[in-house]
Design a protein that fits this description.
155 residues, alpha+beta, Thiol Ester Dehydrase, Chain A, five-stranded antiparallel sheet, 4 helices, 5 strands, 36% strand
Length: 155
């Protein structure tokens, strides 16, 4: 028996106020150090001994790594949207350091939507995105402006 792909959600299907949440991902120190060693080798991300003397007292996840984890988790809850592309991230904030053992979930909330003034085949949708830890603290957040396909006319 073949599995049917989920229906695509177009601009018209998205509801202002809708909130979605992903499954959980628990960060490990090895994962954080591996990412940082390759992409963001600041001492408090990549060096266990040196990080002990930092403001954080231990290795913390790179902000870039935090965003990458958010993106993967967000794909679980938004893979069915007929995205064209994102055009802006506003008010990007790293609120709480992500530490080894933190369990993170991505959340999205549709804030606003409008028809595109430039192209009737697309709409503009604004989302608040966040990554929340096991204590309910927001580790990372932003407001994103995105282009989404309008539902094609029936044949």
């Amino acid at each position: 028996m073949s599995q049917q792909a989920p229906a695509r959600r177009y601009f018209e299907d998205l509801a202002v106020g809708e909130v979605r949440e992903s499954s959980a991902h628990t960060m490990t120190r090895d994962e954080m150090i591996d990412f940082a060693s390759r992409y963001d080798p600041q001492y408090f991300h990549a060096d266990v001994e040196a990080a002990k003397g930092s403001t954080f007292g231990e290795v913390i996840a790179s902000g870039i790594h935090t965003m990458a984890i958010w993106r993967r988790l967000d794909h679980e809850i938004a893979h069915d949207i007929a995205w064209i592309c994102g055009v802006a991230w506003n008010d990007v904030r790293w609120r709480v350091a992500v530490r080894a053992g933190d369990t993170l979930r991505a959340r999205s909330k549709c804030l606003a939507k409008r028809e595109s003034g430039a192209d009737p085949r697309r709409g503009v949708v604004e989302y608040h995105y966040s990554l929340v830890n096991q204590r309910g603290e927001t580790a990372w957040e932003c407001v994103s402006v995105n282009l989404v396909e309008r539902r094609p006319p029936a044949p």
